Structure to design on (378 residues):
C-alpha cells in the first residue's frame, strides 16, 4: 500500500478520490478493499481501464467506477469536500485515509476496515496498546464503579482505554481512562461533529482535549441504529482485547466481544450473580471461552501472557449458521434495504443489524452506499 507523507494534511484531490470511492454505487467496503489491494490508491482505480477493473469487480461495478460524478452528485461531493477540508483545518482535527502511515496498524488488518477516519484530539493514542471496556447502558451502580476502577487500573499501567461514549459502562470506562496516563479513545456511531447521547457532551469535550474522538461516519451523520453495531468493529479493532463489565444476554456489547474473537483479540468478562440480568451476557461469554477476570490487574496479567505467547493466527468470526441461509435466501441477488429484509424475515430491524454485520465481516454480503445490502456469491 502506497503511503502518503504523515506530516501533510489531505489535499482536495486526494480526499476527493477517497470520497468518490466511498460513494460509488454498488461498491461497498469489501469490494473497495479488493480494489485497493490491486490498484493501491483510489485515483489509480478511477484511472484504470474497464478490462483492468473487470479483473477485480463485476461489469456493473466497473461501469459505476468509470462513470465520473456529474450533476447533483458532483455538486454534493464538492460540498462534502469543502466541509471536510474546513473541518480538517481546525486545531486537533485529522483525516486519516486507509493508506496513511499513521492509520492504526491494528485496525488496518481487520475485515472491512474503515476507508477514512475522522480524528479529534490526541491521534497518537491510536498507536498505543489498548483495551476496550464495554458494557450495558443501563448499568448497575456497582457495574459503573467496577468499570471506572478497572479502566483506571489499565490507564495507570499505560494502557489506553477504548469505548463507545454510551451511557453507563462506556462513560465510566472513559472516565477511568482519563484518570491515568494511558488515556482514552471514544469511537462514535455518528459524525465526529455530532455527539450522542447529548448527556455525554461534557465528557466528549474532555475526551477531545485529553484523549481522542474517532469516527468513520461522514460529518453531520446523525444517530442511527445501523451505525452503532458497525462502530463496534472499530472499538475491538483498535484494541488488544475487549473487557465486558456488565451485559444482558442481548446486549450490543456481545457483538463487540464476538467481533473481537473474529479479529484475533482476547475477550475478558466480569462474572456476577446468577440472578442478575446484567450478568447473563458475561456468563454467556465465559461459557464461550472468554477469560474470567475480577480486576484490572487480572486483565494486565492476561495481556502480559498474551504478549509472551503472541502469535498464531486465530479463526475468523463466522455468523450463526442457523440464520445464515434464511438471510441469504431472502436477499436474492439484487441490492436490498435492511428494513425490507427485516420485513421479509419477520425480524425486528434493530435485532437484524448484528447478523448483517457478521455476514458482512464473513464476506457473504456487502453494505452499499445508501444503507443497501448486496449478497456476494462465493
Amino acid at each position: 500500500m502506497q503511503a502518503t507523507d504523515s506530516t501533510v494534511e489531505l489535499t482536495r484531490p486526494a480526499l476527493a478520490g477517497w470520497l468518490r470511492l466511498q460513494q460509488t454505487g454498488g461498491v461497498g467496503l469489501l469490494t473497495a478493499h479488493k480494489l485497493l489491494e490491486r490498484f493501491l490508491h483510489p485515483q489509480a482505480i478511477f484511472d484504470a481501464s474497464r478490462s483492468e477493473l473487470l479483473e477485480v469487480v463485476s461489469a456493473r461495478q466497473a461501469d459505476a467506477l468509470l462513470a465520473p460524478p456529474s450533476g447533483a452528485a458532483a455538486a454534493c461531493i464538492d460540498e462534502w469536500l469543502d466541509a471536510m477540508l474546513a473541518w480538517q483545518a481546525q486545531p486537533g482535527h485529522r483525516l486519516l485515509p486507509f493508506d496513511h502511515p499513521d492509520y492504526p496498524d491494528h485496525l488496518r488488518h481487520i475485515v472491512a476496515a474503515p476507508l477514512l477516519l475522522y480524528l479529534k484530539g490526541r491521534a497518537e493514542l491510536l498507536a498505543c496498546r489498548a483495551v476496550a471496556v464495554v458494557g450495558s447502558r443501563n448499568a448497575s451502580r456497582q457495574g459503573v464503579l467496577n468499570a471506572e476502577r478497572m479502566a483506571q487500573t489499565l490507564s495507570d499501567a499505560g494502557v489506553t482505554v477504548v469505548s463507545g461514549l454510551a451511557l453507563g459502562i462506556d462513560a465510566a470506562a472513559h472516565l477511568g481512562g482519563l484518570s491515568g496516563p494511558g488515556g482514552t479513545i471514544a469511537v462514535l456511531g455518528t459524525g465526529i461533529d455530532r455527539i450522542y447521547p447529548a448527556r455525554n457532551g461534557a465528557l466528549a469535550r474532555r475526551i477531545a482535549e485529553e484523549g481522542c474522538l474517532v469516527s468513520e461516519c461522514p460529518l453531520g451523520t446523525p444517530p442511527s441504529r445501523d451505525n452503532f453495531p458497525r462502530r463496534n468493529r472499530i472499538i475491538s479493532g483498535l484494541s488488544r482485547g475487549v473487557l465486558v463489565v456488565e451485559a444482558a444476554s442481548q446486549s450490543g456489547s456481545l457483538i463487540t466481544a464476538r467481533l473481537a474473537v473474529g479479529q484475533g483479540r482476547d475477550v475478558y468478562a466480569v462474572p456476577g450473580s446468577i440472578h442478575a440480568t446484567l450478568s447473563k451476557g458475561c456468563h454467556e461469554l465465559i461459557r464461550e471461552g472468554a477469560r474470567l477476570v475480577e480486576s484490572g490487574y487480572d486483565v494486565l496479567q492476561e495481556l502480559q501472557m498474551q504478549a509472551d505467547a503472541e502469535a498464531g493466527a486465530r479463526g475468523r468470526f463466522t455468523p450463526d449458521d442457523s440464520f445464515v441461509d434464511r438471510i441469504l435466501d431472502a436477499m436474492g441477488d439484487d441490492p436490498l434495504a435492511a428494513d425490507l429484509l427485516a420485513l421479509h424475515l419477520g425480524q425486528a430491524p434493530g435485532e437484524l443489524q448484528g447478523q448483517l454485520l457478521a455476514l458482512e465481516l464473513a464476506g457473504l454480503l456487502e453494505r452499499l452506499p445508501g444503507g443497501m445490502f448486496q449478497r456476494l456469491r462465493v
